UniProtKB/TrEMBL annotation:
Name the UniProt record assigns to this protein: Glutaredoxin domain-containing protein
Record's keyword terms, sorted: Membrane, Transmembrane, Transmembrane helix
Record has Transmembrane helix as a keyword: yes
PROSITE patterns hit by this protein: GLUTAREDOXIN_2 (PS51354)
Residue stretches making up the Glutaredoxin domain: 70-128
Keyword Iron: no
Lineage: Bacteria, Bacillati, Actinomycetota, Actinomycetes, Kitasatosporales
């Protein structure tokens, strides 16, 4: 749990230090803008922007019953954040597994990626897709483009 909040905490601290330095130099507006920027980065790298994570076993069970994708992710991963934001509200229609909290999920990612913990890794229809194009996954979640082929 602490590890997933380390990056956001460091970004917040850096923002406070930079903003404080600017404010001390008399440039309060720039300091506030930089503080907001660092806080947005911290929020994007935090577990807060992702739907509630479930364990790998539960995600696999749910995915098998409802056909929704299982997305393995890790806090602080820029590609995971990109996927999450590009999916928008559709992200709630996937089952998210935080591999930092779930050793079984991390093992599944390593098995799918030749020993590497490369995320995001998406399990959809029994196949793993490493760092899929968000538009491709959006189409799958929407039930469109069934014959569109593998992700780019």
């Amino acid at each position: 749990m602490i590890r997933s909040w380390l990056l956001p905490a460091l970004l917040t601290l850096a923002g406070l230090l930079v903003a404080g330095g600017r404010a001390a130099d008399g440039d309060v507006v720039t300091g506030l803008v930089l503080l907001v920027f660092f806080l947005l980065l911290a929020a994007a790298g935090s577990p807060l922007v992702f739907p509630r994570s479930v364990g790998a076993a539960e995600a696999l069970r749910r995915g098998a019953s409802d056909g929704r994708p299982v997305v393995y992710w890790r806090p602080g991963c820029a590609f995971c954040v990109r996927l999450r934001f590009r999916l928008g509200r559709r992200a709630r229609r996937a089952h998210w597994v935080n591999i930092r909290r779930d050793p079984e999920g991390a093992a599944a990612v390593r098995a799918a990626n030749g020993g590497d913990e490369t995320v995001p890794t998406v399990l959809l229809a029994g196949r793993h897709h490493t760092n899929p194009d968000p538009a491709w996954l959006r189409d799958r979640i929407d039930g469109l483009g069934e014959d569109a082929g593998p992700p780019r």
